[in-house]
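Task card 7
Instruction: Convert sequence to structure tokens.
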Amino acid sequence: MGVTAGYGSQQASLSIASHVESYPVFLAYYLGADHFLGFPTCDYAFIGEINFGVTMLTAPIVTVLTRKFGMQSQIPLGADMLCGGFVSASYTTRIWHLYLTQGVLVDLCVDFIYIPTVPVVSQWFLKRRSLASGVSAAGSGVGGLIFSLATGPMIRNIRLG
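Output:
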């Protein structure tokens, strides 16, 4: 059972934290495509800063909600927000739409999916707990690499908006 818990936590780390790490690929696309004419480049970069701010501000709230309702309700909610945020971002017509969709909504999913999975590894592994936690945390680095390499081709080939 411990291996399953560690694998699930590592997969959550790989997929969710990777979004934040792959934002520079989105930024390069936004700057090159210039969808929102007349806005300075720092407006696009501000979306990446919203990522970290939303995650840090809402983590305590998600922790309380996870204690109250359990992770089984938080993770599906986060997955729905992730999908909704990215699909909504593809339909944006104004820069402030991007602030709300990719800046806020998508990054709420980081908390709702990642925060509940963090303590799982340490609860299941009694021996070599540090190694298990390290392997789980390494998922975000591996995921960041994979997502960064895959995001560019996905942006070019998959168009929703």
